[in-house]
């Protein structure tokens, strides 16, 4: 955000740097249950973003003082692989990933029936293998599929998508260049069944009208993401929906 | 054993009551509407009169309840469950037992069939030992206690364990124990299925392998119709292979003498 460049991010025909229109999302592909050792897992490709999520639990909390006597806690570990960006990302938690972990955990806590599992933790590990803007949305989208895959009771999945402002226009799902040189980026996560917003942040500046437009765009996209998430779970379990003539 | 019934083919029932000729096992996802005006059973939650699934599972409606039988998930201890535990720690008056759930369970010296002197706990059970126990108490914050005072509960000294997803345990047992007794009869193994998804198998080495393979087959195809028949075929062919190869080797030895 805020950087300057000579590249035209949106051309005179309204086509963006990667050939999309203003309200077009990058292609998303999700696969559920990719890891054998984890209780639940998912792999997601969102344009050039590649994310893998693993869920363990509910299980005992260590260290003990973190445990809550009346509900499960959700521990979310967002991490970027050292090779996920152009300059090597120094491994280990930093300010940014700690923040993303916190807000994503809170988003998931809203849909998981945490009160069914007192004194336990649900651990969600998400690693960004390749990043190209919008990784927190990609991570949360993958994580919620992994939580469902782990058989953890939840009200609904969480779907996330970002919208922002580039060259004075509101656009959906920014890519790396747009994120770096654009004017604003606003990730949103919703609970599709109720339309509740469980995560919303903004970086940069937009007018109120622009925020309204961006929100509408992002929320609409979340419902498309939701369909892809359900598709991924379906694909893993459809063979069980066997039909037989009795 | 209500769950057990939910699992097992509902042939007689649907055939008789509705006269339907085919059924589909319906997979539902969290947040999916599974019923209206029905009572919310396992794996579901209610909002107003609408019932939604809370887990990935198979929908089943019976007796006014809508259930979602989960495909994955951890074991949640219930009072009265017979489970297979592994000792993880020894204290002066108790043992800690891992019962494959998020909660470790203490087994107090008063809850075992032996008279244990204070501090002598390790003489009876030690870390790594496998025990057959009953869940005797679970409170609202899920403090679990287990006991070995019920008949038949003991340390398992021989054989080995296999683990399956706890939600598939009813299928392992079958209606009225049909699946597990067939496994036992055809493999001549001693077996016990713990509610926590741990299965103990003991018998002839080759037969134990066959039994474990059959358990794997049941777990993979837990939701298929006509599973009992398929498992029976599998067991019969594998056991036939075993006995024929055993005869061959016997014959070879006889000839040498």
Q: Key features?
A:
heterodimer, A: 246 residues, alpha+beta, Ribosomal Protein S5, domain 2, 5-stranded mixed beta sheet, 5-stranded antiparallel beta sheet, 4 helices, 11 strands, 27% helix, globular, B: 257 residues, OB fold (Dihydrolipoamide Acetyltransferase, E2P), Ribosomal Protein S8, Chain: A, domain 1, 3 domains, 6-stranded antiparallel beta sheet, 4-stranded mixed beta sheet, 7 helices, 17 strands, 30% strand, disordered N terminus
Describe the global form of chain A: globular
**Count of discrete domains of chain B:** 3
CATH topology of chain A: Ribosomal Protein S5, domain 2
Largest interface: A-B, 38 and 38 residues
Helix content of chain B: 25-40%
β-strand number of chain A: 11
- For this structure, the quaternary state is heterodimer
Give a nutshell description of this structure.
The complex is a heterodimer of chains A (246) and B (257). Chain A has 246 residues and is an alpha+beta fold.
Task: Walk me through the structure.
The complex is a heterodimer of chains A (246) and B (257). With 246 residues, chain A is α+β, with helices and mostly antiparallel strands. Chain A has a single domain (28-237), classed as 2-Layer Sandwich (Ribosomal Protein S5, domain 2). Chain A has helices spanning 95-109, 135-149, 176-181, 208-237; strands at residues 28-32, 40-46, 49-60, 73-80, 120-130, 159-166, 169-172, 184-191, 196-200, 203-204, 243-245. Chain B is 30% helix and 30% strand. Chain B contains 7 helices and 17 strands. In chain B, α5 packs parallel to α7 and α6 runs antiparallel to α7. The longest helix of chain B has 30 residues, at 227-256. The N and C termini of chain B lie far apart (55 Å). Mean pLDDT of chain B is 85; it is low at 1-22 and 252-257. The interface between A and B is large, with 38 and 38 residues. β11 (243-245) of chain A pairs antiparallel with β1 of chain B, so a sheet runs across the interface.
């Amino acid at each position: 955000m805020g950087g300057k460049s000579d590249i035209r991010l949106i051309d005179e025909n309204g086509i963006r740097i990667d050939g999309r229109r203003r309200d077009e999302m990058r292609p998303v592909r999700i696969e559920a249950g990719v890891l054998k050792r984890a209780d639940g897992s998912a792999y997601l490709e969102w344009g050039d973003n590649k994310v893998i999520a693993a869920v363990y639990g509910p299980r005992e909390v260590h260290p003990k003082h973190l445990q809550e006597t009346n509900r499960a806690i959700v521990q979310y570990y967002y991490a970027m692989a050292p090779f996920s960006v152009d300059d090597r990302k120094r491994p280990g938690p930093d300010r940014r990933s700690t923040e993303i972990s916190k807000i994503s955990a809170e988003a998931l806590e809203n849909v998981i029936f945490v009160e069914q599992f007192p004194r336990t933790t649900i651990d969600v590990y998400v690693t960004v293998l390749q990043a190209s803007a919008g990784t927190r949305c990609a991570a949360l989208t993958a994580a919620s599929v992994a939580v469902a895959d782990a058989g953890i009771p939840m009200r609904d999945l969480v779907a996330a998508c970002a919208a922002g402002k580039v060259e004075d226009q509101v656009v959906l799902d920014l890519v790396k260049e747009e994120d770096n040189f654009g004017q604003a980026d606003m990730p949103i996560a919703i609970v599709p069944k109720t339309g509740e917003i469980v995560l919303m942040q903004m970086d940069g500046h937009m007018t109120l009208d622009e925020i309204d437009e961006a929100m509408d765009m992002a929320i609409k996209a979340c419902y498309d993401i939701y369909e892809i998430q359900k598709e991924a779970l379906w694909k893993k379990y459809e063979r069980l929906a066997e039909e037989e003539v009795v | 054993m209500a769950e057990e019934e939910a699992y097992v083919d509902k042939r007689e029932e649907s055939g008789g009551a509705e006269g339907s000729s085919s059924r589909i096992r319906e997979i539902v996802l969290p947040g999916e509407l599974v019923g209206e005006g029905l009572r919310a059973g396992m794996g579901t939650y209610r909002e107003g009169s609408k019932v939604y699934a809370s887990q990935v599972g198979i929908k089943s409606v019976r007796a006014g309840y809508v259930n979602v039988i989960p495909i994955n998930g951890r074991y949640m201890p219930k009072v009265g469950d017979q489970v297979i535990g592994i000792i993880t720690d020894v204290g002066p008056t108790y043992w800690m037992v891992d019962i494959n759930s998020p909660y470790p369970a203490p087994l107090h010296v008063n809850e075992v069939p032996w008279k244990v002197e204070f501090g002598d706990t390790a003489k009876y059970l030690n870390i790594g030992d496998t025990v057959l126990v009953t869940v005797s108490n679970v409170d609202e914050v899920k403090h679990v206690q287990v006991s070995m005072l019920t008949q038949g509960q003991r340390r398992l000294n021989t054989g080995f364990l296999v683990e399956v997803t706890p939600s598939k345990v009813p299928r392992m047992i079958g209606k009225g124990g049909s699946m597990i007794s067939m496994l036992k009869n055809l493999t001549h193994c001693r077996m016990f299925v713990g509610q926590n998804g741990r299965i103990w198998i003991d018998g002839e080495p080759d037969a134990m392998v066959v039994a474990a393979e059959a358990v794997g087959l049941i777990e993979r195809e837990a939701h298929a119709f006509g599973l009992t028949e398929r498992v029976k075929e599998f067991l019969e062919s594998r056991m036939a292979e075993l006995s024929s190869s055993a005869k061959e080797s016997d014959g070879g030895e006889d000839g040498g003498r």
